[in-house]
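Forum > Structural Biology > Help requests

Title: Can anyone predict the 3D structure of Selenoprotein O?

Hi all, first post here. I have the sequence for Selenoprotein O but no way to get a structure on my laptop. I'd be grateful if someone could post the structure tokens.
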Amino acid sequence: FVNSVKASGLPIDPNPQNTKGPRRGVFFSKVAPTPLKNVRLAVRSSPCFQWVGLKQPNSEEEEEELAGLLSGNVLFSGSDPLSQCYCGHQFGVFAGQLGDGRAISLGDVKTTTDSGLVDLQLKGAGLTPYSRRADGRAVMRSSIREFLC
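Reply #1:
Sure, ran it for you. Structure tokens for Selenoprotein O below:
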């Protein structure tokens, strides 16, 4: 597990209070995932686990530990969570500063098959500076749709 390669050398907002609001002159903001209560794994992909080198849990204790890591309640060693700031057009009009309103990148994981890197990201993990008026969470229905599609 390594810090985000895409962010290396780019300006990062330290964001020590995990606050919302506009940012200037940065590409990313540091964030802290908002903890959840009673987390558990609902579904998992064995091929994906193998691809990123995650060990399948063999006990209830290992299952709880993994659920904590994959929910953002506990951070992987070397993780420095970030949310991305960007600008863009929506519906043909410049929308100004946007960003990851509910997505938090935990860092990059080396794949076991092709020595590439993949970004391990949480969706709906809580507030980021770009959450606007929302709480940064995701409802189960949307999460399931994104997982399947």
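The mean pLDDT is 87. Helices lie at 46-52, 60-71, 140-148.
Shout if anything looks off.
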